[in-house]
Design brief:
By secondary structure, the protein is of the alpha/beta class. The protein has three domains: 165 residues, Spore Coat Polysaccharide Biosynthesis Protein SpsA, Chain A, CATH 3.90.550; 90 residues, Tetratricopeptide repeat domain (Serine Threonine Protein Phosphatase 5, Tetratricopeptide repeat, Alpha Horseshoe), CATH 1.25.40.10; 95 residues, Tetratricopeptide repeat domain (Serine Threonine Protein Phosphatase 5, Tetratricopeptide repeat, Alpha Horseshoe). It is 46% helix and 17% strand. The chain contains 14 helices and eleven strands. Strands 1, 2, 3, 4, 5, 6, 7, 10 and 11 form a nine-stranded mixed β-sheet that branches. A two-stranded antiparallel ribbon has the order 8-9. Helix 10 runs antiparallel to helix 11 and helix 10 packs parallel to helix 12. The mean pLDDT is 93.
Length: 358
């Protein structure tokens, strides 16, 4: 059986840290906690679980902090999590079983990251990350912001998931920390990698600096050194920026540009359906919503589950109602209900159909 070091970097995480550590207690053989400047009870809480606690002077560079934490691990494999991540009971059992059965020739283990949830608590946004890595391989984190763990070799993909529960923390205004780090890099004439360009553009978009975001998204695509999933997301985000600026045609072209990188994805089919539905072109809208069901979702990239389940059915209900085909409209509302029976629009439509049948 392998041994596991849990390595974390933390700052002001008193509200969530215990929940994270409790969820891996008994699985991780060692907790390595690196604090980057907490002003609350984070370190006191960490001390209930481990005496391996280090202070790390913040350098505006997340990879530096994570690499420092990794350097302090002593077990066979390193598991990394953030303080607002947890393992559910089901995933905890799966990881415990994997710990017993994992072959020593595995260099890294990929797990799902569940980051988005609907009002029922069902996962609606997930992607993969390399979570468990062999310590002796010396894998390194790269990047000041939105850092990534560079791995290679024999990688095992599992259905284990780490669940992100950020909304359990007290609500706070959007942080401009990452944006400031990137602005400092630009002001210092530091070279931005393609990944930096992409995430800098994301920060600009999130802070409603749409014109600058558009510029950096185009710089990113022009490098032609991009992960396909980020190229596809760039098309989506460019469309969002253009739409926010009122440039509807450019927004449409950005959605269509995603087809240059891969076959249509469900989320893009639905967005195109939305475009035509909003223009009351219901037949065209229905075409794209129907296509969403046969479009390919990405297992290795970012998956938004609703775009291949209840959402296109709900929109098809609207389209066929407007086209005068109420029978097909009801069929699609019933199908939407099979995925999301409590959605307010599904329930509203159900009442309408009930009234029509009386």
């Amino acid at each position: 059986m392998i041994s596991i070091s849990l390595c974390m970097i933390v700052k002001n995480e008193e509200e969530v840290l215990a929940g994270c550590l409790d969820s891996v207690k008994g699985i991780a053989d060692e907790f390595v906690i690196v604090d980057t400047g907490s002003a609350d009870a984070t370190k006191e809480i960490a001390a209930r679980y481990t005496d391996i606690i280090y202070d790390f002077e913040w350098t505006d560079h997340f990879a530096d902090a994570r690499n420092f934490a990794f350097s302090k691990a002593s077990k066979d494999y390193i598991l990394w999590m953030d303080a607002d991540d947890v393992l559910t009971d089901e995933d905890r059992k799966k990881l415990a079983d994997l710990k017993i059965s994992l072959s020593p020739d595995i260099d890294a283990v990929s797990m799902y990251y569940h980051v988005g949830f609907d009002e029922r608590g069902e996962v609606n946004f997930k992607y993969r990350r390399n979570r468990l890595v062999k310590r002796e391989k010396g894998f390194r984190w790269i990047g000041a912001v939105h850092e990534y763990l560079e791995v290679y070799g024999n990688i095992l993909e599992t259905d284990i998931a780490v669940t992100h529960r950020k909304h359990h923390k007290t609500a706070a205004p959007p942080s401009d920390r990452n944006l400031k780090i990137y602005e400092k890099m630009v002001e210092g004439n530091q070279t931005l990698t393609p990944r930096d360009l992409f995430y800098f553009a994301n920060e600009l978009k999130d802070h409603k600096q749409y014109n600058r975001a558009i510029t950096y998204y185009h710089h990113f695509l022009a490098t032609k050194q991009c992960w396909i999933e980020d190229e596809i997301r760039t098309c989506q985000y460019l469309s969002d920026c253009y739409r926010a600026l009122g440039h509807e045609e450019a927004a449409l072209h950005s959605l269509l540009k995603s087809f240059l990188f891969d076959q249509p994805r469900p989320e893009f089919c639905c967005r195109l359906g939305d475009y035509f539905k909003e223009k009351q072109k219901y037949r065209e809208g229905a075409f794209w919503y129907e296509l969403a069901f046969s479009a390919k979702s990405s297992d290795s990239g970012f998956t938004q589950v609703e775009y291949s389940t209840w959402y296109p059915h709900l929109q098809l209900c609207v389209c066929y109602w407007q086209l005068g085909d109420k029978k097909t409209a009801k069929q699609h509302n019933d199908l939407a209900a099979s995925f999301h029976p409590t959605h307010p629009s599904v329930l509203f439509n159900k009442n309408i159909f009930a009234e029509q049948s009386e």
